[in-house]
Amino acid sequence: MHQHGHHGHGQETDTSRIGFAFWLNFFFTIIEFIGGWLTNSVAIMADAVHDLGDTLSIGLAWYLGKLGHQKATHKYTYGFKRLSLLGAMINGVILVAGSVWVLSEAIPRLLAPEMPMTEGMIGLAILGVLVNGLAAYKLHGGHSMNEKVLNWHLIEDTMGWVAVLIVAITLHFFHWPILDPVLSIGFTLFILFNVVRYVIQTMKLFLQGVPDDVEHKEIKQALMSVEHVEEIHHVHLWSLDGEQHVLTAHLVLNVSVDAQTLKALKKQVNDKLAPFHLSHTTIEFELPGEPCRDEEDHLHSHPHNQPHVH
Description:
Blueprint: E1 2-4, H1 11-39, H2 42-68, H3 83-111, H4 118-139, H5 145-173, H6 179-206, H7 213-224, E2 229-239, E3 245-253, H8 259-273, E4 280-286, H9 296-301
Parallel strand pairs: 3-4
Antiparallel strand pairs: 1-4, 2-3
């Protein structure tokens, strides 16, 4: 028994939103690097590196997002949705590398702090809040793991620029040059903490971990409540991209059923699973006394020629 759900709400708008955020970030990152160098501020350099990471991430998400909407092929039977997970993974690695670089620049400055040019810092910070705020607003409400990761980056960036603005105004009135490296270190450690969390989450989905424990439990309960179902096993729930989930399960029946009853059971299973909006489901019915062909000893003795009831 096989079912395909269509979960692709507003896929095209997803990629166009990401495209908008990409160009916005791309041009702004160039301005930042020049600005960070001209104002002699490591806090701005920290943001520039972070924005460079975001620009690469967004570009990658945009490209992989477009690829991800391609139809399934005979070689990639589930389609290309998992590419967005790969994108989220690469983004994480880029950001970790950028953060380490910023720390290596900022930590020595604690010992010999240099005074940045505050007027330039204030101007860049105001621009930073506006640009990143607009990009974050555009990506707000995205559904895919990728969009959530990117949106979080952009919200972080906006908060980072608010902090740069506060420090720049403070430095304008007080000669405390150490605030600049302190801000960049604090901000970078905060980013690292969140990025590592996301990388772990993405890794879990990559390794086909259960995307949602509660949903997993509820699906099992729903299947157990189907008429004549005595036991369920080999319940596998995993995700293509953090949003589109795949389910396979074996249902052991307590009666031998004719074609008519089987049809009614399939309808019941469909109705019970409908609220979960699963992208793909494969359900196997096992009759009383019938051995499960996926058990270890069975697999080794008959790895081929296993018919599948759909």
